[in-house]
Amino acid sequence: MNITLLSKAMLIVLGVSTLSACGGTDSAEPTPTPTPDTTAPVITLNGNSTITHGVGSEYIDAGAS
Q1: Which of 45, 50, 40 minimizes the C-alpha distance to 64?
Q2: What's the predicted TM-score (pTM) here?
Q3: Measured distance CA(4)–CA(8) in Å, rounded
Q4: How far apart are the C-alpha atoms of 5 and 11, rounded to whole Å?
Q5: Cβ distance 24 to 7 under 8 Å?
Q6: Termini Cα distance of the chain
């Protein structure tokens, strides 16, 4: 099959435009910057705020799952 010069030029233009559309060249649009998460986490205590635990005894966390 004989490919003419015009066909080769069209293939080159198509290839360059495809690469440009896929980010292959510089873009005028800046890369978006993610918004930082500034909200502090909320920790909720369920149950007593203090416990007494003997040394060497097994500890079972009340309410843990």
Answers
A1: 45
A2: 0.26
A3: 6
A4: 10
A5: no
A6: 71
Q: Which residue has the higher pLDDT, 64 or 61?
A: 61
How far apart are alpha carbons 61 and 45 in whole angstroms?
Answer: 13
pLDDT, the chain, mean: 76
Lookup result for tokens 């910057």: 33
Q: Taking a C-beta distance cutoff of 8 angstroms, is the pair 12, 6 a contact?
A: no
**What is the CA angle 7-11-25, rounded to 5?**
150
pLDDT digits (tens, 9 = 90+) for 34-55: 999 999 999 888 778 888 889 9
Using alpha carbons, select from 9, 22, 49 the residue that is nearest to residue 62. 49
- Report how far residue 33's alpha carbon sits from residue 30's, in angstroms, rounded to the nearest whole number: 9
